[in-house]
Amino acid sequence: MYKSLFFLLGLISINLNAQTFTLKSNDIDGQATMKQVFDGFGCTGSNLSPQLYWENAPKETKSFAVTIHDQDAPTGSGWWHWVIFDISNMVSELKTGAGNLTKNSAPTESIQSMTDFGKPGYGGPCPPEGHGYHKYTVTVYALKTEKLGLDKNANPALVGYYLSGNVIEKSSIVFYYKR
């Protein structure tokens, strides 16, 4: 009886200490700020991609990808704001502004592909005026491949297809914005 009790307590202890793959940010905390908001389409933000970092990636991870998607955009399929992939498994952070292609601050050899703005790189929130709060889901994917085999011209749906076929685990955070 005591052996069973100790075994059960050991399992509970292991589960309480289990670390899960987690995405965090020092820049976003529930609501977008003018730092992240797009500069265009009637919006006047700084268009800086948020700082992101992740912890406890699966040991078998060979690369990462990050996406930002607005499911509330009035398009029928949402709006892709950022798609970056082929991030080395040695990287666990994207610095503020890494989505600006002219700054070259994204991780070496990572690829930022097309967004629904019609170009690669980060494009911040800018929902239609009076449309209410939009939900922006930021997701990091731990992948079982080093490279997706795609380039900067790949559209978000194609990247999503490749991500789905190679994901080990993923983690998301959400923020909101309205104007």
Main traits of this protein?
179 residues, alpha+beta, 3-stranded antiparallel sheet, 2 helices, 10 strands, globular
Secondary-structure map:
Layout: H1 2-16, E1 22-24, E2 39-40, E3 43-44, E4 52-55, E5 63-70, E6 79-88, E7 93-94, E8 111-112, E9 134-143, H2 156-166, E10 167-177
Antiparallel strand pairs: 1-4, 2-3, 4-7, 5-6, 5-9, 6-8, 9-10
Order of helices and strands: HEEEEEEEEEHE
Overall geometry: globular
Unreliable stretches covering 5 or more consecutive residues: 5-14
Strand order, biggest sheet? Answer: 8-6-5-9-10
User: What structural class do helix, strand and pairing data support?
Assistant: alpha+beta
Number of separate strands: 10
Radius of gyration: 18 Å
* Percent of residues in β-strands: 25-35%
Largest sheet: 5 strands, antiparallel
Structural description of this entry:
The chain is globular and about 45 Å long. Helices cover 15% and strands 30% of the residues. With 179 residues, it is of the alpha+beta class. It has 2 helices and 10 strands, in the order H-E-E-E-E-E-E-E-E-E-H-E. The termini are far apart. A hairpin with a 2-residue loop joins strand 2 and strand 3.
